[in-house]
Amino acid sequence: MKIQKILFTILLGLVMIAAGCSNKNQSKKSEGAAKQSNANIQYKIIEAKNLKVDHIHGIGYPGNDNGLYLASHDGLKMYKDAKWFNTTSNLHDYMGFQATEKGFLASGHPQKGTDLKNPLGLVQSLDKGKTINQLAFYGQKDFHFMAASYSGNGIYVINEEQSGKFAPGVNYSKDNGKSWKKSEFNSFKADSLGMIAVHPVNGDIMAMSTRSGIYYSQDNGNTMKLITTPVMVTALTFIGDELIYSSVENGSILLKTINPKTGSMKNWTIPFLDYDNPITYLAVNPKNRKQIAFSTYKNDVYETTDGAKNWQVLLKNGKMEQD
Fold first, then answer.
1. Alpha carbons within 13 A on the beta-carbon side of 13
2. In angstroms, what CA-CA distances link 321 with 18, 45, 68, 75?
3. pLDDT at 323
4. CA-to-CA distance for 246 and 257, rounded, in angstroms?
5. How far apart are the first and last CA of the chain?
6. 93 with 143: CB under 8 angstroms?
7. Do residues 217 and 225 touch, judged by C-beta distance below 8 A?
8. What start and end residues bound the annotated signal peptide (predicted)?
9. pLDDT tens digits, residue range 138-158?
10. Which of 169, 227, 266, 280 has the most CB atoms around it within 10 Å of its CB?
């Protein structure tokens, strides 16, 4: 019970971090000035000599590139060809980051000094972050929790408060943000909402992690079904038709897959993690399912390219591992 309370505090802290990131950045005048000075610099992706990430707001493998993308409060970080890369501008405070076949979706707040409205609403980039297209709620909403189908039609957001006809709770769009419907969440009995995962091809299929297990839906979240035992699940994503997820059981951080239809499960080997450093985000490369990455509460990032036989530390406490 003590561990459950500690982990719930950690997960609640993640929500507070996401909600408070922009406010924290607003108060840092020196950091804001630095961001503003970079706002008009030509956008380039350059190798990072040093890297320090304070908050990770999502990870994924966009289909228009060959690397792992990490969203942070000061722009994108990319890992490819055994190197980390930064961008010279567009250092937006990205949240709700979701990699897709054509690029990525995100929400959040713009870099100071740009002419973009704050908040960003729902935006999309098809050119590795060089430009972003406003899809919905531009200048109106900031979505900390969002998910999307990799190649299918399905975007899901958690709306935290009533906004006109846009209801609080989980809402979904099948037309890239033009129209929205509320997920009814029938048979959902968890006491809080969690991370969302969407099937990579069929956007009608989604799942949600909660403190009491994984709920699964084949009808856009209108009907939910508990498919695991009542364990705390901190992160999840689809790997084909199955779900890969991280749970905390008996003080251990575990990684598993489950077939939602048959209930069959598989345990994966991962590096040891302290119970106060749970996995926060998971990503699978749809073009190579043996390539999997995860981030943790303490901003560690691990990746495997051989289906979890070996794992490489890409970031430790948000910093690059030096050779």
1. 15
2. 25, 20, 16, 20
3. 52
4. 9
5. 40
6. no
7. yes
8. 1-21
9. 999 999 999 999 999 999 999
10. 280
Query: Does the domain formed by 2-320 have CATH 2.120.10.30?
Result: yes
Name residue, tokens 């048959």. 262
Where along the chain do its domains lie? 2-320
CA distance 7 to 200: 29
Q: Phi-psi bin for 103: left (phi > 0), alpha (psi -120 to 50), beta?
A: left
Q: Hey, CA dihedral for 54, 194, 288, 71, is it positive or negative?
A: negative
Burial class (CB in 10 A: 0-12, 13-18, 19+), 58: buried
Q: How many CB atoms lie within 10 A of CB 312?
A: 14
Which structure tokens are listed for 16?
């507070």
Q: Which residue has the tokens 């009608």?
A: 204
d(CA 45, CA 30): 23
The whole-angstrom separation of Cα 244 and Cα 108 is: 26
Q: How many CB atoms lie within 10 A of CB 85?
A: 19
What Rg value do the Cα atoms of the chain yield, rounded? Answer: 18
Torsion of CA 181, 109, 67, 237, to 10 degrees: -40
Instruction: Give the separation between CA 261 and CA 294, rounded to whole angstroms.
Output: 25
Q: pTM of the prediction?
A: 0.91
Q: How confident is the model at residue 20 (pLDDT cuts 50, 70, 90)?
A: very low
The answer for residues whose C-beta is within 8 angstroms of residue 33's C-beta and 6 or more apart is none
Q: How far is CA 181 from CA 177, 197, 238, 277, in A?
A: 10, 17, 23, 35
CA atoms within 13 A on the CB side of 22: 17
List the structure tokens of 23: 């406010």
Q: Can you name the residues that pair with 177 across neighbouring β-strands?
A: none
Q: Are 258 and 264 in contact (CB under 8 A)?
A: yes
Amino acid at 276: D
* Interatomic CA distance for residues 128 and 68, integer angstroms: 12
d(CA 284, CA 146): 17
